[in-house]
Amino acid sequence: MGTDRVIFHCDCNSFYASVELLSHPELRDSPVAVCGDPKSRHGIILAKNEPAKAMGVKTAETIWQARQKCPDLVLLPPHHDRYGVYSRQINAIYYRFTDLIEPFGIDESWVRP
Ligand SMILES: [Mg+2]
Q1: Residue 39 — pLDDT band, cuts 50, 70, 90?
Q2: What is the largest CA-CA distance in the chain?
Q3: Number of Cβ atoms within 10 Å of the Cβ of 8
Q4: Looking at the annotation, which residues are catalytic?
Q5: Positive/negative CA dihedral, 98, 103, 106, 107
Q6: How far apart are CA 42 and CA 110, in angstroms?
Q7: CA-to-CA distance for 21 and 51, rounded, in angstroms?
Q8: 14 CA to centre of ligand 1 in angstroms
Q9: What is the pLDDT of residue 42?
Q10: Ligand 1 center to 108 CA (angstroms)
Q11: Ligand 1 (ion): which residues have CB within 5 A?
């Protein structure tokens, strides 16, 4: 198989949670989820870090469901503007290696070496 047949799918794990934790390094080892407004009916889990994942917290479930499994879950609000900034920085790293990059969503890209 030649390298012209190789395409990487690069997907950042826990992307929103990882970006938020840059502002809260003290929470890195605690279960953390990024979620919509807990007071609104749209309060669902948008992302979670590894400790929250280990407690069974899942993306797209309600905050209420997540708290049943993980009472100590720390909830952080999303900052969508920051995700775009980091998404561009991550793609800039890929561009050091190739021009053949197709971003696919905020935290994923197709990359052909
Ligand atoms: Mg991802």
Answers
A1: confident
A2: 54
A3: 14
A4: 108
A5: negative
A6: 31
A7: 12
A8: 6
A9: 65
A10: 6
A11: 11, 107
Please identify which residue in the block is written with the tokens 């929250």: 52
Q: What spacing in Å lies between the alpha carbon of 39 and ligand 1's midpoint?
A: 26
State the number of CA atoms in the 13 A half-sphere of 49 facing the CB.
Answer: 20
61 C-alpha to ligand 1 centroid (Å) = 17
pLDDT given at position 1: 56
Collect all residues with Cβ–Cβ distance below 8 Å to 96 and sequence separation of at least 6.
none
Cα 13 to averaged position of ligand 1 atoms, centre (Å): 4
Tell me the pLDDT band of 36, cut-offs 50, 70 and 90: confident
Query: How much is the mean pLDDT over the chain?
Result: 93
Mean pLDDT of 55-62: 96
- What is the predicted pLDDT for the residue at 38? 72
Which structural domains are found in the chain, ordered by start?
Answer: 3-111 (3.40.1170.60)
Q: Which stretches of the chain are assigned E, i.e. beta strand?
A: 8-11, 32-35, 45-48, 74-76, 101-103, 108-111
